[in-house]
Write a structure and sequence with these properties.
A hairpin with a 2-residue loop joins β1 and β2 (about 410-415). The chain is built from 21 helices and 2 strands. Strands 1-2 form a two-stranded antiparallel ribbon. The protein has one domain: Up-down Bundle (Growth Hormone, Chain: A), CATH 1.20.1250. The longest helix is centred in the N-terminal third of the chain and has 56 residues, at about 5-60. It is mainly α and about 450 residues long.
Length: about 450
């Protein structure tokens, strides 16, 4: 045997062993990566599930408007005001929520918030006092204020930043699923067991979800390639917040979001079902099902707009297309007489589908600010978006009361189709304004600002 071949043998064996080691390392790394990816989606999914639950609670008054009028002897404006107590807490809390998310991270905050939602829901149902019902509604809004921002904050920690628009759309899709369940499931439960027992069940579901959130959500992504989560001090956060407040793009972008969100906050979340019953002549069940088409349109449209926006590397164009489509379909819905039930269903679906392009304002916000204050910037945008529910739910009720002719049905006020057309004219007007404002917003091309 050649002595040199003996000398070369260990090197060959070593090389073979190295290959085996590398292969083993590769094979063990893939399952680990897959496990981390599944964990990431599970954590973000639970955050989105909480958003689904809070949206379910948000739209409850729209399904039981006649019952609330009878129990508390309310006018249209008073029903709008009772529902808007949710927004009285939700909207001003947004800035604080963003600061807390960036300072303390989502897990503890979402757990406490979900528990408060469950307690507020119980108070809303467990009283004959209007003041206590308003307090319960306020507490639900307080806890709900953490849901959407928390879900998006989890997405910035656990998922790839260049798919933020798509992820935002998926989160919104789950929220709209909760709203659809609210319209269809709540209506059936209210008819079967009464509105108070239905709300008690909703409170119990919140307690279960609280335990799930605490058990599953984690604040730190172990992947070293992920963007680091910053826990900044409040002084630094306030400095960054002031910079964001001085940025006109944030305000313009938020106003577009607020105006397009009116399809939900001013219509589907409260006045859609009464409009469909009284102005379009649908039964309670059909009105609830038809109204859920707006949420279905949002559920399908939001992830599609997110994907489309990522695909074409544009944010402004999809929103402009959404404005045009939403304006056309809401005009048909409100002003074209003698619509068939199929046309009503499709018009509501299309109205929601095109309006859901609104989800892209959160991607614009995320890309226009530094990553370390993503929670604060998103919360500021969400606060502006929620102005619609806070102001226009009672405002539309007031407009309806101004045209009311004194007609009652089982203790609940009945409004004419002309009353609804006049009061709901704020919807097409808001879309037109959003379309104009889009010309002043800069394109971001999904580029994330470095810290």
């Amino acid at each position: 045997m050649n002595p040199m071949s003996i000398l070369r043998q260990p090197a060959s064996i070593t090389k073979l062993n190295n290959r085996i080691t590398l292969k083993d390392s590769y094979m063990t790394r893939i399952p680990s990566d897959k496990k981390l990816l599944l964990t990431s989606w599970l954590i973000c999914g639970v955050g989105a599930l909480y958003y689904c639950y809070e949206y379910f609670l948000r739209i409850c008054p729209s399904v039981m408007t006649p019952e609330l009028m009878r129990v508390y002897g309310l006018t249209g404006a008073q029903v709008g005001n009772l529902s808007a107590f949710y927004y009285h807490a939700y909207m001003p809390m947004q800035i604080l929520v963003g600061l807390l998310m960036d300072r303390f991270a989502p897990r503890r905050l979402l757990t406490i918030a979900c528990f408060l939602c469950a307690i507020g829901t119980y108070l809303f149902a467990g009283t004959s006092s209007l003041a206590m019902a308003e307090a319960g509604r306020f507490l639900v809004g307080f806890g709900s204020a953490f849901a959407f921002v928390g879900a998006l904050k989890l997405a910035t920690i656990w998922l790839s930043p260049n798919r933020f628009a798509l992820i935002s759309g998926i989160i919104m899709c789950l929220g709209m699923t909760g709203a659809m369940m609210g319209d269809v499931l709540l209506r059936s439960l209210v008819d079967d067991i009464g509105w108070q027992q239905t709300i008690y069940l909703s409170a119990a579901a919140g307690l279960i979800l609280t335990a799930i959130i605490w058990s599953i959500i984690r604040d730190v992504n172990p992947n070293h390639t992920a963007i680091a989560h910053h826990q900044l001090n409040f002084g630094k956060l306030l400095t960054e917040l002031l910079a964001a407040l001085k940025n006109p793009q944030i305000w313009l972008n938020g106003m577009v979001g607020f105006l397009l969100y009116m399809s939900l906050s001013a219509f589907a979340e409260l006045w859609g079902i009464p409009y469909l019953e009284q102005a379009q002549g649908l039964s309670k069940v059909h009105a609830a099902h038809a109204n859920s088409m707006v949420f279905l349109g949002w559920a399908i449209g939001a992830p599609i707009w997110g994907w489309f926006s990522d695909f074409i590397n544009r944010r402004r164009l999809p929103i402009i297309i959404g404005c045009i489509g939403a304006l056309g379909w809401v005009t048909v819905l409100l002003y074209v007489p003698h619509l068939s039930i199929k046309t009503i269903y499709f018009s509501l679906f299309a109205f929601g589908l095109f309006s859901s392009a609104q989800i892209l304002v959160f991607a614009i916000c995320h890309e226009a600010t530094q990553h370390k204050i993503a929670g604060t910037a998103i919360a500021l945008t969400n606060m502006i978006v929620m102005i619609g529910g806070n102001i226009f739910q009672p405002f539309i009720g007031k407009l309806l009361d101004l045209g009311w002719k004194g007609e009652l049905l089982q203790g609940a006020r009945v409004y004419s189709i002309h009353d609804y057309q006049t009061s709901l004219s704020v919807l097409p007007m808001s879309i037109i304004i959003a379309f104009v404002l889009m010309s002043f917003i800069r394109e971001t091309h999904y580029k994330i600002k470095k810290d």
